[in-house]
Amino acid sequence: MIDAKILSLREAVASVPDGANMTFGGFAAYFTPMAFVREMIRQGKRDIEMTSVAECWVADHLAGAGRLRRARFSNFMFEGMGRCYNFSRGVERGEIAVEDYSHFAITSRLVAAALGIPFLPIKPMAGTDLMHTRGFEAEKARPFACPFTGESVLLVPAARPDVAVIHAARADRDGNAQLFGNTCVIDEQARAASRVIVTVEEIVDDGVIRAQPELTVLPGFLVDALVDAPFGAHPTGMYRYYDPDFAFLTDYYAASRDEAAFRRYLDEYVFDVADHWAYLRKIGIRRLMALRADPGLGLARIHARTLS
Amino acid sequence: MTTAAYTVEELMACVVSRELRDGELGFIGLGTGGRAFVMAVGIPTVAIRLAQLRGVDFIAQYGVKLEPLIEEAPACFTDADLLDWRCRAMIPVEDALDMFRRGMMDWGFVSGAQIDPYGNLNSVCIGEQKHPKVRLVGAIAQTDHCAHARHTMIILPHDRRAFVERVDFISGLGFGDGPGYRERFQHRGGGPGKVVTTLAVLGFNEKTRRMQVESLHPGVTRGEVERNTGFALAFPDPIPTTPTPTDEEVQLIRTRIDPKGLFLQAKVR
Which among B9, B117, B161, B180 could disulfide-bond with B264, CB atoms 3.0 to 4.6 Å apart, if both were Cys? Predict the structure, then answer.
């Protein structure tokens, strides 16, 4: 069963059914599995449901391509820019159904699933309209009196996404995956999901992983499929590998304000490129190398110079 | 001390700083851009540093970072730069929320697109939630701050779009529909403390729980505040004027705390 987990990006995406309930890694403009998302759009994946904390770049891409059917989430906003126009348009037109949560409430639903328990008691959301809107499946939360103290709490049910897609820094061939820097809630997302797909910047010898086991955020036994996807987070960044491509992200945001412009963006960077390698060729080696992080600094040298 | 020329953001930061006390703990989320960033992040950040430089032992957490030095703030709030920003501990967001839950956070600094007379906040939608006229970013941790922080400091631009009789969606709980509402849910947090706006400083009546004016910023008239507020406000008689920043405070902000305008002019990237 050598390398049984290693799939091509095309195979990994093909293994996700239409209508899947998905959760994705990524925070702000970082470690978002964008190569996977572009391939999803390319393959025509549709009716996707997101169980999400704040994976704005995924949500806005899927929404703009008309592939997002519903989302339970805390917030979608582009840090430093503002709200997500494709996503907002989809909701405003009634094409995307939403189930709003506070950050802590949606995280608690994932944590409950990760712990293997049916629900968790929380306090926030009580008294707000987040409690008054029905969820996709019956209740979002239920008011409850603690059986020991009588304290008023809300019970939130475990959320179990069908698939978690996480873009990590590196993994060995068994999927023991490491990520530098901020990891947000990816371990909860991965433990909550029925199936875990990990895309990585590099597949490394297991000795590399063994040398720094404290960096392993996802043990291999949690990982069902592993995909080699260098620059797989572009245009978002990957700490210690490359910076976010701010020029690209800014152009994206401008395009997302207008449907025709966004359609052109999708044609140019998703539909008219055959696969992730063709995408990287289109972005160009010069641009990718300029984004590449200095291993000592953790960020690109060009960027570091502009900081001071 | 003579009165210096100052911006309204500098004034707001000084107002917020005077509310902060020794031994208190406050949380500021790092995010959003432009004007929203100045309100939710910039003003509280400068306020906290001002209070500290005045000798107030106020402890601040910025996202995952405990007590980074504001003077060392990166010009760019990307993950890489934030990770390199020196601080005393990296506290995961979930642990920070646990601290809220245990009632350890004295101040939550919050903002929103709409606020009503009872201090309820909305950052979810304009119009009906299922079919909104405008879909906004979502509840974020605003809900959690409003439930758990001992007080919330609400910082907003003052206009009729934001100050409305009824918010379209309550995502951050203030005093609900008035006296007794919050208490029903046994929230640990006490609810809205102050509302600091571009025109005035406001608080809440202890009996009615409605927002009321505490002071008007220099040069601002009662009529101006009324024209920019979508609900009836009580005013004290006489109406105090918000104390202006001192020369020293303005100097500290411009030369030491925020010389590049990262925080009060949103020049952070």
Answer: B9
